[in-house]
Amino acid sequence: MGALSNHLLVVTVLAYLVAMIAYAAELSFGGRGAVARAATRTAAPTPERVLVTVGAGGDGGDPATPAPPAAPATPEGPTGRTALIGRFAVALTVVGYAAHLATIVARGLAAHRVPWGNMYEFVLAVCFVGATAWLVLLNRRPAVRPLGVFVTLALIIMLFIDAVRLYTSAGPLMPALNSYWLKIHVTAAVTASGVLLVGFVAAALTLIRLGYDQGKRSFPCSLGYRLPAAETLERLTFRVHAFAFPIWTFAIICGAIWARQAWTSYWTWDPKETWSFISWVIYAGYLHARATPSVKRWVATCIAVVGWGTMMVNLFVINLVVTGMHSYAGVK
Amino acid sequence: MATVEAPAADRVDSGAPLPRGNGFGPWVVALARRGWRQLTSMRTALVLLFLLAVAAIPGSLLPQRSIKIEDVNTYLRTHGSLGRTLDRFYLFDVFSSPWFSAIYLLLFISLVGCLVPRLRSHITALLRQPPDAPARLSRMPAYATGKGGDVEKLAALLRKRRFRVAVRGTTVSAEKGYLKESGNLLFHFALLAILIGVAVSSWYGWHGSRNIVAGPDNAFCNTLQQYDDYGLGARVHPGDLPPFCVQLDRFDATYSAKDQPTSYTAYVHYSGADGVQHPAKIQVNHPLRVDGAGVYLLGHGYAPIIKYTDRFGRSQTSVLPFIPSNEATLTSEGVAAFPDANVDPKTGKQDPNDQIGFQGIYLPTMSSTDTHSAESLHPQERNPRLMLVAYKGNLGMDAGLAKSVYTLDQARIASGQLRQFDTTRALKPGQSWPLPDGSKVEFLGTQPFATMTVRHDPGEMYVLVAAVCLLGGLLLSLWGKRRRIWLRVDGDRIEAAGLPRTDYPGFADEFDEIVQAARKEGTF
Ligand code: HEM
Prior knowledge:
The structure holds two protein chains of two kinds.
Chain A: H1 2-29, H2 34-43, H3 47-50, H4 80-111, H5 119-140, H6 148-165, H7 180-213, H8 219-222, H9 230-262, H10 271-291, H11 297-320
Helix pairs in contact in A: 1-4, 1-6, 4-5, 5-6, 5-7, 7-9, 7-11, 9-10, 10-11
Chain B: H1 25-39, H2 42-61, H3 69-88, H4 98-127, E1 142-147, H5 151-160, E2 164-168, E3 171-176, H6 178-204, E4 206-213, E5 220-221, E6 229-232, E7 245-255, E8 261-271, E9 277-283, E10 288-290, E11 293-309, E12 315-319, E13 323-326, E14 331-338, E15 355-363, E16 385-393, H7 410-415, E17 418-420, E18 425-427, E19 432-434, E20 440-456, H8 460-479, E21 483-490, E22 493-500, H9 507-520
Antiparallel strand pairs in B: 1-22, 2-3, 3-21, 4-6, 4-20, 5-7, 7-8, 8-9, 10-11, 11-12, 11-20, 13-14, 14-15, 15-16, 16-17, 16-18, 19-20, 21-22
Helix pairs in contact in B: 2-4, 4-6, 6-8
The complex binds protoporphyrin IX containing FE (HEM).
Protoporphyrin IX containing FE sits at the interface of chains B and A.
């Protein structure tokens, strides 16, 4: 079973890789802003509704003055062939996703327990939640499809590091992890991290697009040409973070309850706890900054990116370099 | 999030100019007012939030006294003046340092300054009727017109959708989503409550740890003298600790087929003030609750039984826990010290330089091939060896120092007050080692020991309740949607308008749905 899981992981990564190439193809052959146009259109009021509502939900600005129509609604979407490539990309993502799920299930069967008891499994599960979040998003707003290139890229990088650097063979849990709180706390942490991964991709793309809009044309900003409108991306970034933040809060609370059960005290400033706190504070800062009219949107978005940075420090630096009571990583 | 009416706290720059001339008093008042406004602004709160995050970083990278004081001492020993400088700036006590406290206290003052006016205006909003319709409804983000209009029916329609409704003549004002702001306030007050709970924890809580060796002779009681280390809250007196005693009967570790540990269990007896003995089982994740305190199993290891017979033939036995230097294999280090060895039975006197101590490493499973390795292969006792180095001289332990030492005084070894004599030996259980001065040391076997921590924390329940409120408040605050709807009947013409007061992309749909429902009822 353990070996099967490993083979399935290879299938997963390969499927995501081909999907990424297909997304990239759609993005680059889609013509000027096919994506951008499509995405803007979904965000802007549809023609029928314009009669009734003008720019409802245009956040940030003064709602009393209707937001200007975001873009002239062009009827044509991506051309037939590119749309086909895009659908192929989605199909492959789903194949990769199924293999991903199977990887995790096989791992759980091999170890006879929930498959997130060490760092390798944790990252595997975070990526799975990231992929889930992406597919849900895609289902709700098909127009964001070509952004899949960035999501799959992030997934491939994480899974690659996971398989190469963090691999641990399947085994029983260490006694300290033997508690139903593992299921609750770690599941919440995995879910929040996976959603925040997608949030990070959205935040980074927002910054790229904003940079492009300001006339920057050097590398990452040059991608902005093909991206949806900054406003759309920015709102997406906020949505995803607003969804993930309470889950993260819940994960920390459950961690504290478990800590009281296993290590005597609900909070001891163990390095892992400290960095969870840091991430929490940074993301709270992001939500505040975004709710504050005097803080520019790009500044707020930068805070979200920094937040993801702290999540990564917590995952990699704290697990692998610093020792604390959370030393469940199991990486030699 | 569209803060339509920017919170008052955000209007920093509107600070009045400082008055010139006419005395010191008004100037101070104006300065204080401006400072207060600055402090309670959202920008300041944001900066403080960031400072808090940054200030926490060194606490995770440098060893902290509150977590592992031994690591701090090691760091100070190995880093010389850098260590002392860091210590001067409280970098080994980050979370109780003045600068860390200053940041969070300022943040909380800022929070209170921000919350109180918000609470006041929220209560006003809850008591007040939804505001009257603006003069030109057509300028609102959602707008529709129709024919007909029964004001009462329209009001009933909105009430059914749980809007708060006010009818003024021919206009209906309705508002919904007050829970958003209630949730927001709940969230922020919960933050304050958590801080208070944490303070209660640290003032009224206490904890103590002890390595307890199995056997009736090694029971320990809940008094400070019996702990290896402890912490008492500022408001706790040593006499406040409830009197109970715990004895370790047996310690079990189980392993999987692949030799990975799967469970640790300490079988104990405990007795409270009444002296009645109760049997109990303590496992990792399953502490024992006694008299409002929790007794936790945090670690375990072996205590070698070392019998020393001095050159006058008098024997003493030491059963001291050896501390694992590697938790996975239980390679452990410790000492057996005999400060009152070699007392001449004739004179009843001891040459202080005739004390004896052994520094030891215990390997539960020594490699059978590599006999020089000082690493155990496995935590179970499959091929146990006790490696001993004998020291003779003045141990420096007479001055009433605690006897539960885990290392000999390295300074005395360096200065020659303690001298190694004879070579190192590796003993199997039952083996003995005759020393050159005619004395003898014998390794009799081991007893398991468990590291137990006892903790009482009266703040934890408050903190938990506050944390749950925080989460509930957060959900309401993030997902609640405040919106207003107005209807105005003018003859047989009717106008409807809507205003989402927060980011709410679905508002248009909701507005449409309400208009359609009104049409269906024939009131629109
Ligand atoms: C301990 C530090 C704090 C944390 C962790 C924190 C966290 C949060 C979170 C998570 C939200 C919900 C996000 C949202 O609704 O946008 C929020 C909202 C808010 N906080 Fe804080 N907060 C803190 C301190 C403060 C302070 C000091 C102020 C005032 C100066 C403040 C003012 C606000 C306001 C006005 C909102 C509502 C924003 C809106 O929804 O329009 N917070 N806070």
